[in-house]
Amino acid sequence: MRQLGGLDELFLALERNNQCMHVAALGIYDPSTAPGGHVRLRDILAHLRRRLDVAPLFRRRLAGVPFNVDRPYWIDEATADLEYHVHHIALPDPGDWRQLCIQVARLHSQPLDRSRPLWQAYVIEGLNRVKGVPEGSFAIYVKFHHAAVDGDTSIQIMRALHSMIAVPEHHGLLAPPVADAPPSALELCARAVGNLAPRGVRAWLTGVTVGTKLTSVIMESLFRRLTGRETSLLDSLRHQFGWPEPGEESRFDGTVSSRRMVEGLRLPVRTLQRIRDSMPGTTFDDVFLAVVGGALRDYLTDCGDALPAGFAAGIPAGAQDVLPGGSGNHTGLRRLPLHPEIANPAARLAAICHARAESLQTTDVLGPGLVRDLADQVPTGISSFVVGHLLTGYASALVATVRGPDHPMYLAGARLQAFYPVGFVMDGIGLSVNGFRYGDDLWVTIVSCRKMLPEPQRFARALEANLTALAAAVEPAEDKHRPGARAAAATRTQGAAKRPPGARAAVRVHSPATNDNNKHRRHA
Q: For residue 182, which of 60, 4, 70 has the smallest C-alpha distance?
């Protein structure tokens, strides 16, 4: 048995009828690479059954302590009931991209059964008119509770469940499954009593550590105030912790409904990389945040809403030592402003880079695991109250990108064509934008609730258009003065707005190396 950590139990405590705390993924597969050119449900079940040993969380369920006097435990069952966890459905006519998004949104709105292992999968057929998807393709939507996995762990599981060759493996489990004996109520209560003394010692050590680190931050804030970089000590502390200033709320800061809206698109990785390379000190995530900030500006403007200067996103900061068989949450959350009030795309990107650098300085002082340590020692009732009531407005969205494999992946012989990560939203954080790098594309998924984002397709088109605008803004000066450059940029922007949500944004950025090659050709 393995006891849940503080963050794991926090996600269980935060779950309500209107906010399901699970993460998911949607994969689209081409069965033409499989033997015989087709894949059946029994082939998928056999593939999953052979790989249950690489991801034990498929067999883990919760065992609660009587009267909730201690955190629950994960217990491993002998096997997973795949007939219950894996469902087979088909899209209604016409079977296009919009029907697929509607179906995924409905599945994503349904909670998981806590009496069983916290995951569910749906094999979806009937993708008859999804643009760019070969005939006969199918999709798999799979979701895990956030108490069992975080973003990094789910990607590790995704890698473990797929293979690098199209020929299905026929080996059995690498190791026989080990099942836990169901614990009795007396045993769970005895464990709770035994945890009191060690937990008290850990709480004391954590308190000493937190006090030391907070003293360092306060001294830094006092130094900023004395040197005139901040107007007051309170402003300096707020700046150090990235705490938002009181201001106008956006439509994504309220209470979410129980119905989700899901939309997906793909963006070219090379365009994002060229933008990153054109501005020294910029990261791939910075570029993506700037694109999301521009799309947010366009969407709020079209809706007639104000542009809150304090709109910020929560950025997961993951651990690098997560094993495929692990479970639980190993990530922290960093707050970064998206600056939708800045109209110039390049200026917005520069402001995000500056905010990230300052956020990393504070993280270096406090340590990346401080939030996790506090969650492990503070009672879950207190931490859930703080998150649910006192931290409203700290971040209005969740934005993250994860790098996946560059080589093709296969499941039961079918090639993985697209992989959309599907995040979650909650009260006060009504927007989630997640990207997954697979091959040459960044597969992006937008998740919100029906009342906050009734037309997610508009937000997807805004993402494509803002990538084009950002690419044009960071072009070298000599390219901007070429005859017809502005007209070509305008044409690309209009074309991006008219493309369907799942289409690739064809954006071209002129790098300095390309310009030098053109000069040599002219001299030749």
A: 60
User: Cβ distance 96 to 214 under 8 Å?
Assistant: no
Residue type, 104: V
What are the DSSP calls for 290-302, one per residue? Answer: HHHHHHHHHHHHH
8 A C-beta contact, residue 422 and residue 27: no
How does strand 414-422 pair with strand 410-411?
Answer: antiparallel
Three-state SS annotation for 445-465: EEEEECCCCCCHHHHHHHHHH
* Interior angle at CA 410, CA 409 and CA 415, nearest 5: 90
Q: Rounded to whole angstroms, what are the CA distances from 100 to 51, 127, 138, 151, 457?
A: 27, 8, 11, 23, 13
Fill in the amino acid letter for 393: G
Residue 171 in 3-state DSSP? coil
pLDDT tens-digit map of 80-129: 899 999 999 999 988 999 999 999 999 999 999 999 999 999 999 999 99
81 φ, ψ to 5°? -85, 85
Three-state DSSP class for 178?
A: coil
Packing angle, helices 485-498 and 456-473, rounded to 10: 160
Between β-strands 441-449 and 431-438, what pairing exists: parallel, antiparallel or unpaired?
antiparallel
pLDDT in tens, 202-220: 888 888 887 887 787 788 7
Residue 291 has pLDDT above 90, yes or no: yes
pLDDT bracket for residue 345 (50, 70, 90): very high
Distance of CA 86 to CAs 116, 124, 150, 386, Å? 13, 11, 21, 36
For residue 411, the cross-strand partners are 414
**pLDDT digit string, tens, across residues 148-196:** 887 667 777 888 889 888 876 655 555 666 778 888 889 889 988 888 8
